[in-house]
Design a protein that fits this description.
The protein has about 350 residues and is mainly α. It has one domain. The chain contains 16 helices and no strands. Helix 1 crosses helix 2 and helix 8 runs parallel beside helix 10. The longest helix has about 35 residues. The radius of gyration is 20 Å and the shape is globular.
Length: about 350
């Protein structure tokens, strides 16, 4: 078979780019608007990822999703998301993780290693679909929205599953942001213990850091690094989840979970960031690009989400999210007091 000539290949790439641009452009616009709203209000709970998801769902409900937008939204949901997860690794170094001590790192590891299996088990008992349980578990155990959209690359849930999981995680994480400072006062937690509790158990990075800020500078430092330790668990957790999914689907015609190569890219970027060789503008650029890319991916997800399918899920996934939230909160508090 004759190979494509360079001119035909370039023409094909140009055609694909033209098809992708409208949907990708709309997703990026929604992302930037969501970030602007968060910056203008100064409310940490206004996570741009969640705001972008709401915009996407509302647009889909009101106007539908024309066919000419679909290629671009599909591109935003997958390649753009995976690139964002890889770049996220530049925000964490091995030195940062080690600075909090072995006990805090062990607590971060246990938060992830125990919460995800517990949530999957509880979801099975409640009759929640397996993929949705896996998404709620990773979102609770690791880092909220980023973990959910990353884990779905192997869980292969429906877009409605991802949207429902994002909504549940947002509700529980926002409640933590409001409740934890009050409970810390009642319990008389030290700044270090409070930071460990917030960092080891609150869902989103912004929520964990925001809650830890109520405990003062030491709580913020300890809480942020403990939370970042959980973020680093994203790659191995996705790999483990992929193996879990593959084993669970083991039949006479075994279905393999896709290899999450972006997880290896994430770990590679952590290693690169740990060298200290990258100039500050590169790190700063990644810190700006990642929220934009993540919010664009989730905005595209919202554009592809049917509200009728969300309503069909019922209350059981919400109960699962609340159960997982209570589990990791108690686990994190016990670990913080022990450490």
């Amino acid at each position: 078979m004759a190979s494509l000539s360079p001119s035909r290949a370039s023409g094909s790439s140009l055609t694909r780019a033209v098809l992708v641009l409208p949907g990708l452009g709309l997703s990026l616009v929604l992302s930037l608007i969501a970030i602007r709203i968060r910056d203008a209000t100064g409310i940490a709970a206004m996570n741009p990822v969640v705001v972008a998801l709401a915009f996407g769902i509302l647009l889909r409900a009101g106007l539908g999703l024309p066919g000419w937008l679909r290629p671009g939204t599909a591109f935003a949901v997958r390649p753009v998301l995976r690139a964002a997860i890889v770049l996220l690794g530049l925000q964490v170094t091995a030195g940062q993780l080690l600075s909090v001590g072995a006990g805090a790192l062990a607590l971060a590891f246990l938060s992830v290693a125990l919460t995800i299996p517990f949530t999957i088990w509880l979801g099975n008992r409640l009759g929640v679909p397996a993929a949705l349980s896996q998404l709620i578990g990773t979102g609770t155990g690791i880092c909220g929205a980023s973990a959910i959209v990353a884990a779905n690359q192997v869980a292969q849930g429906r877009q409605e599953d991802v949207a429902y999981a994002l909504a549940v995680i947002t509700l529980c994480g926002t409640a933590s942001l409001l409740i934890y400072p009050q409970l810390a006062l009642l319990l008389g937690l030290s700044p270090r213990a409070y930071g460990l509790w917030a960092g080891s158990s609150i869902h989103e990075v912004v929520q964990a850091v925001g809650a830890a800020a109520a405990g003062g500078p030491l709580a913020v430092e300890v809480g942020t690094i403990t939370k970042l330790a959980r973020v680093v668990m994203l790659a191995p957790a996705v790999l483990a989840l992929g193996a879990w999914v593959q084993r669970g689907r083991g039949t006479s015609a075994q279905v393999k979970a896709p290899m999450p190569w972006f997880a290896f890219g994430f770990l590679a970027m952590v290693a690169v960031a740990s060298t200290g060789w990258l100039p500050p503008p590169v790190i700063g650029g990644a810190k700006y690009a990642v929220p934009v890319m993540l919010a664009a991916s989730v905005a595209a997800l919202g554009l592809n989400t049917d509200l009728r399918a969300l309503r069909a899920e019922g209350m059981r996934p919400l109960l699962l999210g609340l159960g997982a939230w209570l589990f990791i909160a108690v686990l994190g508090l016990a670990g913080a007091l022990l450490v």
